[in-house]
Design a protein that fits this description.
This protein is an alpha+beta fold. Among the domains are: 2-61, no CATH class; 67-107, no CATH class; 187-195 and 319-398, Efflux pump adaptor protein, beta barrel domain (Elongation Factor Tu (Ef-tu), domain 3); 203-307, OB fold (Dihydrolipoamide Acetyltransferase, E2P) (Beta Barrel), CATH 2.40.50.100. Helix content is 22%, strand content 34%. It has ten helices and 27 strands. It has helices at residues 2-26, 30-40, 47-53, 108-118, 165-171, 235-249, 258-265, 270-279, 461-468, 470-475, and strands at 69-73, 81-82, 95-98, 122-126, 134-135, 148-151, 161-162, 174-177, 179-195, 200-204, 209-214, 222-223, 228-233, 286-289, 294-299, 306-307, 312-317, 321-329, 341-345, 354-366, 371-379, 390-407, 411-413, 418-423, 428-439, 443-448, 455-459. The chain has a six-stranded antiparallel barrel with strand order 9-18-21-20-19-22. The protein has a four-stranded antiparallel sheet with strand order 10-17-15-12, with no helix packed on it. It has a four-stranded antiparallel sheet with strand order 14-13-11-16. A hairpin with a 7-residue loop joins strand 4 and strand 5. It starts with a helix and ends in a 17-residue tail after the last helix.
Length: 492
């Protein structure tokens, strides 16, 4: 009986050793080992023997590591990884990375790609912060960061950044085709209403005269073309009229002769000349009429006064067409063009909008305000717009015709230059410096750098910058950095 017990205990011990080794190699759980040992130790053992030997609970003390190894990384922390165990050049083992490590990437494809990249030939090492500095040997920057290796192969082409499809999906990168579009934006400036200088007239005489009668019109009154304004007596005109009548009675060609020509040179109205031809008499006074429809801006004629040649008796203006003079900042002159459409509003006329076009840019800059005045002609058929009214002007400025343009969000402004990111497909992006033209509300003209049909990134640009180290690719655009820089001594 004693021999049977000793044999059973020996068998249990051997099984425990074999089970522990097997569990360590295969990842068997502790519970399964305990169950196996329990089955093997089902042979009864004398209680006095068990107490005397005081056998420890070997099965409960087995230590197993249930973690799964994802991949192996360089022991010095360099960006070199492997899908299988490997050693460094100096014989040290790569460190395993388990699945419970924060930030570990469980995708086997990532580790496989990294291992394949590490097997390629390294051309040189570039600065991790994107500075134009390379080295033919591994080194660290001033902050202790390792330089990043650049490998052979088209996927590591200088100036092109590759982003994995998963990261593209998470960051929400958007792109669109470059096309020719009209770039424009509203330019909002103040303005003021002015009379159209071409539609202002004055009533005057070309000889000394006496005012006998003035029509019942005042400043601000509306008059019609041909409406009587003032009746004058002029000795010089009366003398010319008498000579004209004499020539008529003598059978001469009075109208085309010297007397008729003198009357017209003195500005005598045609109605008065026709009356002298019909009656053969010189009227004692002559009536001056309104030369156009409009408003009376000035009334200087007074009954009984004497007026000299050239004195203004009335000033009239046709207000059916007026100007709006707007002040444009000097910096906006490049985006302004003749013929641009404009919309004008007035505080005194809420809900009303008047349309016009820029027909003149005045050739001078106001020194005090650094602005340039532009003239916009608008119709005022109902006469609501009055001279010197303030106006709000919105001028459509821009390139005019269709140009190569991209959305404003597609442009990355580094301060010293402007860059767009070209989408070359399959997660590959290329930064491209551009020269900009007119900037509109939603679009910006690209004068040089890209062509119609290219695809540019319009969303999540800054995320590509952060995730893919765009700054390092930008440094590759400099011709001086196309090849590795002269060998720099690596710091220990």
């Amino acid at each position: 009986m004693m021999r049977t017990a000793i044999f059973s205990l020996t068998l249990v011990a051997v099984a425990a050793g074999i089970g522990g080794y097997w569990a360590g190699q295969t990842g068997m759980t502790v519970a399964l080992v305990q169950h196996t040992l329990g089955l093997l130790s089902s042979t009864p053992v004398p209680s006095d023997w068990a107490a005397a030997t005081e056998m420890p609970a070997t099965t409960s003390s087995i230590s197993l590591d249930p973690r799964h190894v994802l991949y192996w990384r360089d022991p010095d922390g360099r960006p070199i990884y492997s899908a299988t165990p490997r050693k460094t050049e100096d014989g040290r083992d790569f460190a395993p990375v388990h699945d419970d490590v924060a930030g570990a990437t469980p995708q086997a494809a990532v580790a496989t790609d990294d291992a394949a990249a590490s097997a390629k030939r390294i051309r040189f090492y570039r600065n991790p912060m994107g500075l134009p500095d390379t080295s033919p040997v591994p080194k660290k920057d001033s902050m202790g960061m390792d330089y990043i290796p650049v490998y052979d192969g088209p996927e590591e082409e200088l100036g092109v950044v590759t982003v994995s499809p998963g990261r593209l999906q998470r960051t929400g990168v958007r792109s669109e085709l470059v096309s020719r579009r009209i770039v424009g934006r509203p330019l909002r400036v103040p303005g003021v209403v002015k009379l159209d200088e071409r539609m202002v007239s004055v009533v005057t005489t070309r000889a000394d005269a006496f005012v006998e009668e003035v029509s019942d019109v005042t400043t601000g009154s509306a008059v019609r073309r041909g409406q009587p304004l003032v009746r004058l007596y002029s000795p010089e005109m009366a003398t010319a009229g008498a000579q004209f009548v004499i020539e008529l009675k003598s059978g001469g060609a009075a109208r085309s002769g010297g007397a008729g020509l003198k009357l017209r040179n003195l500005g005598v109205p045609e109605a008065a000349i026709a009356e002298m031809e019909r009656t053969g008499k010189v009227p004692p006074s002559m009536t001056w009429t309104a030369p156009r429809d409009g408003l009376v801006l000035e009334r200087a004629a007074v009954e009984g006064m004497m007026t000299e040649a050239g004195d203004v008796l009335f000033r009239l203006a046709d207000v059916s067409h007026v100007w709006v003079i707007a002040d444009i900042p000097e910096r906006e002159l490049g985006s302004l063009r003749l013929g641009s459409t404009a919309k004008i509003t007035f505080r005194g006329l809420p809900g009303r909008t008047f349309d016009g076009r820029v027909d003149l840019v005045y050739p001078q800059v106001t020194p005090e305000t650094r602005t340039v005045k532009v003239r916009i002609g608008i119709e005022n058929l109902d006469g609501l717009l009055l001279p010197d009214m303030y106006a709000g002007v919105e001028i459509e400025s821009g390139a005019g015709g269709a140009v190569v343009a991209v959305p404003n969000d597609a442009i990355l402004d580094t301060g010293s230059r402007q860059v767009v990111i070209l989408d070359r497909g399959q997660g590959r992006f290329e930064p491209r410096p551009v020269e900009l033209g007119v900037r509109g509300t939603d679009l910006t003209e690209v004068a040089k750098g890209i062509e119609e049909g290219d695809r540019v990134v319009t969303g999540a640009n800054f995320l590509i910058d952060a995730e893919s180290n765009i700054k390092a690719a930008l440094s590759a655009l400099d011709p001086k950095t196309d090849a590795p820089a002269p060998a720099a001594e690596a710091r220990p």
